[in-house]
Amino acid sequence: MNILDELSKYKRIVDLELEKVMPKEDFPQKHIFEAMCYSIFAGGKRLRPVLTLKTSELISGSYEDAMQIALGIEMIHTYSLIHDDLPAMDNDDFRRGKPTNHKVFGEDIAILAGDGLLNLAYETMLNTIPLNSRDYVKYILAIKEVGKAAGVFGMIGGQTVDIKTNEKSFNEERLMFIHNNKTSALIEASIVSGAMVAGANEEQIEHLREYGRSIGLCYQIRDDILDKVGDKSLLGKNTGSDEINHKLTYLSLFGMDNAIIKIQSLYNEAIESLSIFDKERVRFFKELASYLVHRES
């Protein structure tokens, strides 16, 4: 299996499904539709929705039941990027190689575009619940998992602590809270929600949760490294912003060498968490973990 080919294949699947649900009608509020679509179709790896689909496929052999959950997760992720880029947050000019949403549509519409994507995410996920079936509980639990990961006890909580952290309050406990909530929580929920919808048992969910936590933290630390030494043309955004904004990162606290060691340790933990599954069936997840350790974009 070529991991980049597999990611590309499932990215195309997600993109086609997003085309079906994103609003484009010629209504009075069409300007907000344009702003939402601008960011959702600006590129990106679609890592989170792909993880949802692939986890569902691992458990049940199919990703169909998890599709709307996956789309909702990508909308939540994109809304968070729009808001992250705003002048009041990270004040970034480029995202995925294109001008950020507020640079194109203005801050007011960018805020509303993020709000629109967040609300549409839950509309989309809720539309997948089969109310005439006893299976509806697993969908509710999956959406609850995503909601918590995206909210004040997950991503927003991590973002809040990130904003309120200065160099005087740099410490490992704070760093882990920010990374585990701001980035890792939604990656973990992408995997767990896919498993829930597919009917995974408690043991499978717990091992997949551990995998998600490990690769989520690995993803963020690699991001810290790329912000320092990455290629702007590959990343599609400016580098060096963490240092300019005096951000608490793994590098600022422990340095480059320790960051690389930590990533390798997280990779080992991720692989170990997959040990209860058939080796061939989790090949994608093992290769993905390796890719995240070495990714350049």
TrEMBL record:
Record's catalysed reaction(s): isopentenyl diphosphate + (2E)-geranyl diphosphate = (2E,6E)-farnesyl diphosphate + diphosphate
One GO process term, biological-process aspect: terpenoid biosynthetic process
InterPro entries assigned to the protein according to its UniProt record, in alphabetical order: Isoprenoid_synthase_dom_sf (IPR008949), Polyprenyl_synt (IPR000092), Polyprenyl_synt_CS (IPR033749), Prenyl_diphosphate_synthase (IPR053378)
Enzyme Commission identifier(s): 2.5.1.10
Swiss-Prot/TrEMBL keywords: Isoprene biosynthesis, Magnesium, Metal-binding, Transferase
Keyword RNA-binding: no
A cellular component term, taken from the record's GO annotations: cytoplasm
Cofactor(s) needed: Mg(2+)
A GO MF label: metal ion binding
Enzyme class, spelled out: transferase
NCBIfam families: FPPsyn
Record family assignment: Belongs to the FPP/GGPP synthase family.
UniProt protein name: Farnesyl diphosphate synthase
Source organism of the structure: Proteiniborus ethanoligenes
Lineage, opening ranks: Bacteria, Bacillati, Bacillota, Clostridia, Eubacteriales
